[in-house]
């Protein structure tokens, strides 16, 4: 019998050793004993990182929704699968049982089929955090359509880019969404996006805010009447193990977002196994991840991981500060939440408001706390541990990526001793390596280098949609025969890992990966701008914020700088979304460049961080004189 639920540190090391020495036997046991297969695999794993090509459970047949829903009906049919907690606390929560979820997913799947969606088609889902979002995701998986969820905070331009990149023919959206005290015109954003998406034939519209919207004849259809008339029976499409389950876009350091492709069987096995262990989920627990399903965290640890374990998972539509800063804790008390998984950004924002908001509520149900999206700083870790967890609920500081599909390095609660700011030990089956800049692996402890993974794991992305060469160049070309994460890390004296941040031009702001190139491209579209450079700088709440250095064209006219700053941020908001706005904008006479013309962001980063004591040798720059000017005028 495999160790599906690890309970001691000794057991962790024993299972980990087995997973490294006999990875195929290990994952075969997990897959065989805990999941429903229509046909067993012919081969557990074939891989070649030089191509790169990875296949898990080749030859197997399955449908992931049978594992997330159907197989629970006999024993958990009346158990709550999803608790929907609306934006407004005065609106009643919804409890959706596994049987109700089955019926609603089947209805939605039949609606998709009636609209001409078939196996392999791509469906773009641009919805708020309402039940229809999870149901749409599962309905696509039910019929073998590929879902591509776009976070409903992205602009019309960002949405159109993603729709066109994977050639979606259908969009599922809503009339609008609530976000705290505001409403957002989602349908208006979709309409604008579709002006440049000629292949979209159908738009299904859920009613959420009852706003007056435009419905385009022969394209736009209200969703609810279709669901009301659809059958509650929809046989699951039988999928091959390596068939694509979903595409999810992540920022790259170049302008174009990367559509990460995740396949079916390996993703299912790994997300289920990590969920069960890293949150130590027990049968009647109530689990809450505060993320949006528009991100990988929501895919893996709101939908697929919890439901494949027959868990009760909460979907929260709102924001942590509405109607006040006690909202998270009010929900924990209301639903007696046992596992709570959120971002360091949220923790810092709530800590800033003081402990009185936390102390108003009974949080005694909490057993495990988690963080995700970026490394957590020590001050926030201690506040979370002491004020929220009362030093009773261990914190799982999880490191992983859109590309990895599931959690890679994390404590196991009540098993791994925690250490503030450290993600601690690799999860079962994960083989990390720290590399120096020459490509040599740094063996032993007390080392710092670039974080790579040297053996495949089941949930890893298989490619970038439509661009396998970019996948190879981005992840497998820096270090031979290894997956390069793009992150730096250090390993301490006992082998614990701490993530030290990105080593490329991607900045993590409030847990969101933002590539600098697309932001700079947006700024440079402004008619007054000659060029720009974006760097990150430390921020009390967001962890990192964006600092823009902008050189204006010399037109002889003077412009109001405050107005210019507003116009630049509006451009960014229109092209990418409000999450990419700059906190600071400094106008410069020029940017420091190498003689080949490359902007020296390292110098700009140090200036933004107010650390100008050691800028290195700037005499080799093409224009060393601009550095002092930038320092003198820094914000």
Description:
The structure is a single chain. The protein has 635 residues and is of the alpha/beta class. It has two domains: 9-475, ANL, N-terminal domain (Rossmann fold); 506-632, 2-Layer Sandwich (GMP Synthetase, Chain A, domain 3). The protein has 20 helices and 30 strands. A seven-stranded mixed beta sheet has the order 5-4-17-16-18-19-20, sandwiched between helices. A five-stranded parallel beta sheet has the order 7-6-8-11-12, sandwiched between helices. Strand 6, helix 6 and strand 7 form a beta-alpha-beta unit. Helix 5 crosses helix 6 (131-143). The longest helix has 17 residues, at 98-114. It is globular, with a radius of gyration of 24 Å. The termini are far apart.
CATH level-four homologous superfamily name of the largest domain: ANL, N-terminal domain
Global Rg: 24 Å
For this structure, the CATH topology of the largest domain is Rossmann fold
The strand count comes to 30
């Amino acid at each position: 019998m495999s160790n599906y639920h690890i309970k001691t540190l000794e057991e962790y090391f024993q299972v980990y050793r087995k997973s490294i020495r006999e990875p195929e036997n290990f994952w075969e046991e997990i897959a065989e004993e805990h999941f429903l297969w229509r046909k067993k695999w012919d081969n557990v794993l074939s891989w070649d990182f030089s191509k790169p090509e990875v296949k898990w459970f080749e030859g197997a047949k399955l449908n992931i929704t049978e594992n997330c829903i159907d197989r629970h009906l006999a024993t958990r049919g009346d158990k709550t699968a999803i608790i929907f907690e609306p934006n407004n606390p005065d609106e009643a929560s919804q409890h959706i049982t596994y049987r109700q979820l089955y019926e609603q997913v089947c209805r939605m799947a039949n609606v998709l089929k009636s609209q001409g969606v078939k196996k392999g088609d791509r469906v773009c889902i641009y919805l708020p955090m309402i039940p229809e979002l999870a149901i749409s995701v599962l309905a696509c998986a039910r019929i073998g359509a590929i879902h591509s969820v776009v976070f409903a905070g992205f602009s019309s331009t960002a949405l159109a880019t993603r729709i066109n990149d994977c050639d979606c023919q259908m969009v599922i959206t809503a009339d609008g969404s609530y976000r705290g005290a505001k409403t957002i015109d989602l349908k208006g954003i979709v309409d604008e996006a579709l002006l440049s998406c000629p292949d979209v034939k159908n738009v299904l519209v859920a009613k959420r805010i009852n706003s007056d919207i435009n419905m385009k004849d022969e394209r736009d259809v209200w969703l609810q009447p279709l669901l009301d008339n659809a059958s509650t029976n929809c046989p699951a499409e039988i999928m091959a193990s390596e068939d694509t389950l979903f595409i999810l876009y992540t920022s790259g350091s170049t302008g174009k977002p990367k559509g990460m492709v995740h396949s079916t069987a390996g993703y299912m096995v790994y997300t289920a196994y990590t969920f069960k262990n890293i949150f130590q989920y027990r049968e009647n627990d109530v689990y809450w991840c505060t993320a949006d399903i528009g991100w990988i965290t929501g895919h893996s640890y709101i939908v697929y991981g919890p439901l494949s374990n027959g868990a009760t998972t909460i979907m929260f539509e709102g924001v942590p500060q509405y109607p006040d800063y006690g909202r998270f804790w009010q929900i924990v008390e209301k639903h007696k939440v046992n596992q709570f998984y959120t971002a360091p950004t949220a923790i810092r924002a709530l800590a800033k408001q003081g402990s009185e908001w936390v102390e108003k509520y009974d949080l005694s149900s909490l057993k495990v706390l988690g963080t995700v999206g970026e490394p957590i700083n020590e001050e926030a870790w201690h506040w979370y541990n002491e004020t929220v967890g009362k030093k009773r609920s261990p914190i799982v500081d999880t490191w992983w990526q859109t590309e990895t599909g599931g959690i890679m390095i994390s404590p196991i609660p009540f098993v791994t001793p925690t250490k503030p700011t450290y993600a601690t030990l690799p999860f079962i089956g994960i083989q990390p390596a720290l590399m120096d800049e020459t490509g040599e692996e740094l063996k032993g402890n007390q080392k710092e280098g670039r974080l790579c993974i040297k053996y495949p794991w089941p949930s890893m992305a298989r490619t970038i949609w439509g661009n396998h060469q970019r996948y190879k160049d981005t992840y497998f070309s820096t270090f031979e025969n290894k997956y390069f994460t793009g992150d730096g890390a250090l390993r301490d004296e006992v082998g614990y890992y701490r993530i030290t941040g990105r080593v490329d031009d991607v900045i993590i702001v409030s847990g969101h990966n933002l590539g600098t190139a697309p932001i700079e491209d947006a700024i440079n579209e402004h008619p007054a701008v000659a060029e720009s450079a974006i760097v990150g700088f430390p921020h009390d709440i967001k962890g990192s914020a964006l600092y823009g250095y902008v050189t204006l064209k010399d037109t002889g006219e003077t412009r109001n700088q405050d107005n210019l700053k507003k116009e630049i941020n509006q451009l960014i908001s229109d092209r990418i979304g409000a999450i990419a706005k700059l906190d600071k904008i400094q106008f410069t006479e020029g940017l420091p460049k190498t003689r080949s013309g490359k902007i020296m962001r390292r110098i700009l980063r140090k200036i933004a961080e107010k650390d100008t004591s050691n800028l290195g040798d700037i005499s080799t720059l093409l224009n060393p004189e601009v550095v002092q000017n930038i320092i003198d005028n820094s914000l």
